[in-house]
Amino acid sequence: MTEANPRHGRAGFAIGLTLIAAVLFTTLCTLGVWQVERLAWKRDLIVRVAVRIHAPPVPAPAIATKSDEYRRVAATGTFLHDRATLVQASTVRGPGFWVLTPLRRADGTTLLINRGFVPPDARTSYTRPTGQVRITGLLRLTEPGGGFLRDNDPAADRWYSRDVAATAAARALPATLPYFIDADAGAQPDALPIGGLTVVQFPNNHLVYAITWFALAAMVAGAYIFVMRQSGKDRRA
Questions:
Q1: Dihedrals phi, psi of 185, to nearest 5 degrees
Q2: Which of 37, 47, 145, 152 is 20 to 30 A (C-alpha) from 23?
Q3: H-type helices in the chain, by residue range?
Q4: What is the pTM (predicted TM-score) of this model?
């Protein structure tokens, strides 16, 4: 029987440790670089959205993409108050409902307008302007499905998100555009519904994530150097 060569064992250990450390270090650095790129993208997004929000309104488009979200738009038409939908909402003014009202336009298309917030005790007593109206506000993309852990239930008329397609189907609205508008605040700020409550906020933790990944990569490198030095001391001893 031959004895195992301790040098071969130490060499194998060093090679295995080096490979593991290299993979971990490379992966963590890659994640850090990715977060730095995401940070640049998020900052650019925040700037672009800020420009859209404060720009003069443009005519409401026929279609909308993610690049159109939060764009200030304007639309003219007649409200169909009898087909309004109340969507549960949680706002700075407390819990209540968004009043999602169809706007019938001269070209025959329908556009859903989030007229604003009403508290639970005013769900039937908000203002209902008649005749031709002009609405300005922020273009918002549809919110399909429902809210957190709660699905929209059209049959029971319970709504937790502003789902354009489902609302249009439930209210038999023809030629409905695939987005809605968050209406601006009205001339009387406390008149119901209360518009202008859109929350435009983007979480931006990418710098923290990047620092975390790079710090972990540095820890891996430090631990590898420490172990290899300690192994060298043991061999010399």
A1: -65, 145
A2: 37
A3: 6-54, 164-170, 206-236
A4: 0.72
